[in-house]
Design goal:
It contains ten helices and no strands. It is elongated and about 65 Å long. The protein has two domains: about 55 residues, Arc Repressor Mutant, subunit A (Orthogonal Bundle), CATH 1.10.10; about 140 residues, Tetracycline Repressor, domain 2. The protein is an all-alpha fold. The chain is about 75% helix and about 0% strand.
């Protein structure tokens, strides 16, 4: 008779898998992707290395899941701001850029890993998928702005892609390990980034007039 897992064994397996993922996220926060060996994750999770491999056949597969989890949390925060339709679109874009930058600068090791640290191809593929997620949130806001007459008609997908790329490029230097999370003038950096983004939005001049 073939073995059939019981609800209890399935629950234990799911709990062990979750513990491993949370340990991997904590390791990413502390030392970035380069520090996150399977052995380090196993030690942090309190399991044998073989246990990690039973849930994730490779480091790449484990950290693809980690990147999915960690990046989705950031997208969810951005999406929540975007849904606040009591505020003008331009204000919501500005708030999204501000919050994204501040959250990244508050957790520089994790943010650098998610944005720019060299990673395995499978993990980099997840990074690209979720970059599209950020783009989608901003594109939705720009589409709303055009539909409501707050913004002039424009290629919203192109503009959103440029916006996401600009945010990432501006933050890479301050987040890099050489700065150790201590890049000076964070307030000025965030304010300047928000100002540049807002000025780049194609305001509807007819409405403004």
């Amino acid at each position: 008779m073939a073995y059939r897992p019981t609800p209890r064994t399935e629950a234990r397996r799911a709990a062990a898998r979750e513990r491993i993922v949370e340990a991997a996220i904590a390791q990413l926060d502390e030392g970035g992707y380069a520090s996150a060996t399977v052995q380090a994750v196993a030690g942090r999770a309190g399991v044998a290395t073989g246990s990690v491999y039973r849930h994730f056949p490779s480091k790449s597969e484990l950290f693809a899941e980690v990147f999915r989890r960690a990046t989705q949390r950031e997208i969810d925060v951005l999406a929540e701001l975007a849904r606040d339709d009591a505020r003008p679109v331009v204000e919501r874009v500005a708030a999204g850029v501000d919050v994204f930058a501040r959250r990244a600068l508050a957790a520089p090791t994790r943010a650098y890993a998610l944005i720019a640290e060299p990673v395995d191809p499978a993990v980099d593929a997840e990074r690209l998928v979720y970059r599209r997620g950020y783009l989608g949130v901003f594109k939705g806001l720009l589409d709303e702005g055009v539909a409501g007459g707050e913004l002039a008609p424009h290629d919203t997908e192109l503009a959103a892609a440029a916006l996401v790329g600009a945010i990432a490029e501006v933050l890479v230097g301050p987040l890099s390990p050489s700065q150790n999370g201590r890049a000076p003038h964070h307030e000025a950096l965030v304010a300047g980034l928000v100002q540049i983004v807002v000025r780049a939005l194609p305001a509807n001049r007819a409405v403004a007039a």
